[in-house]
Specification:
single chain; alpha+beta; Ribosomal Protein S8, Chain: A, domain 1; 2 domains; six-stranded antiparallel β-sheet; three-stranded antiparallel β-sheet; 9 helices; 9 strands; globular
């Protein structure tokens, strides 16, 4: 039904929030566009149909999130997770989680794109790193294998680097294109044309 992917995504967002802001046992509101939910559910539902498709999610995810409220305004959905969600993630987050390391790295003064790529390579020798030239981001890096399926897009703003991570389908929806189609794979520093 797609609930598993939605549940994992919600957990990942709570992990990211806790990596950035620290742990507090509190209610959390997370937002998704309709398009992302359609990817999870493998549907092409409108907002009202999606609200119906999500009707059983609060019960299905109760063990992890406690109470879950789902509302929407047009194509923007809000998931209100009880304080149980933040507690669950806090108690089950590993100290060496990649997202925690990434947040700590980009928060450091002087962090470079090379530093970020080194961090990715410390978790896998199979990554894809592509320069981007779309005005929004400078570089995309992702793991080729493993559980982390996100596309991490980075922008060097001069005094610091910011990032945003996208689900593969959302990344494709945005139509981001690599710069000159150069890809950097594996644990070598060689670029090759595709």
């Amino acid at each position: 039904m797609g609930y598993e992917r939605l549940e994992k995504s919600l957990i990942d967002l709570v992990k990211e929030e806790q990596a950035k802001l620290g742990y507090r046992k509190e209610m959390i509101r997370l937002y998704y566009p309709l398009s992302s939910l359609n990817h999870f559910m493998e549907t092409n539902a409108d907002s009202e149909e999606m609200q119906e498709l999500l009707a059983d999610f609060p019960k299905a995810a109760e063990d992890i999130f406690g109470e879950v409220g789902i509302t929407h305004a047009k194509d923007r959905f809000c998931f209100a997770l009880s304080e149980n969600a933040s507690e669950y993630v806090h108690e089950n987050m590993k100290p060496n989680e990649f997202i925690k390391e990434l947040v700590e790295l980009v928060a450091k003064h002087g962090c470079t794109m090379e530093d970020i790529e080194v961090l990715f390579r410390s978790h896998s020798d199979k990554i894809v790193a592509e320069p981007m030239d779309n005005g929004e981001f400078d570089r995309m890096i992702r793991f080729e294998e493993g559980e982390d399926k996100y596309y991490y897009c980075f922008k060097d703003e001069g005094c610091h680097i910011i990032y945003h991570r996208f689900l593969p389908e959302d990344y494709a929806d945005f139509g981001f294109k690599p710069d000159k189609k150069i890809r950097n794979r594996g644990n070598t520093n060689e670029n090759r044309n595709i």
